Amino acid sequence: MADVILSITPIRHARKSRHCYWCTTLIEMHEPAVRIVGIWENHFSTFHVHPECEDAWRNDPCNTDGEGCIYEHARGKRCDESDVEPHVRYYQPRLV
Questions:
Q1: Which has more pLDDT, 80 or 94?
Q2: What is the CATH number of the domain that holds 75?
């Protein structure tokens, strides 16, 4: 997710709907969430995830460098628990 994680903050009630960075499903208004603030590729970034997705991200076997896998998981599932094919597990930025 981030090169440098500055803070991880639990949110008791989300003020607005957002997409979870881990599973891409919607975090509805008034649901609990976790805000992750960091620096990624020299840009300040804020990510929002479900609490169970944050647990999956922390315990993910692919998460050796703080990056892990994104966008390919069921809610709260790790890489090894996911039905995703290995060739699409890792986020690869598209070079233009």
A1: 80
A2: 3.30.1740
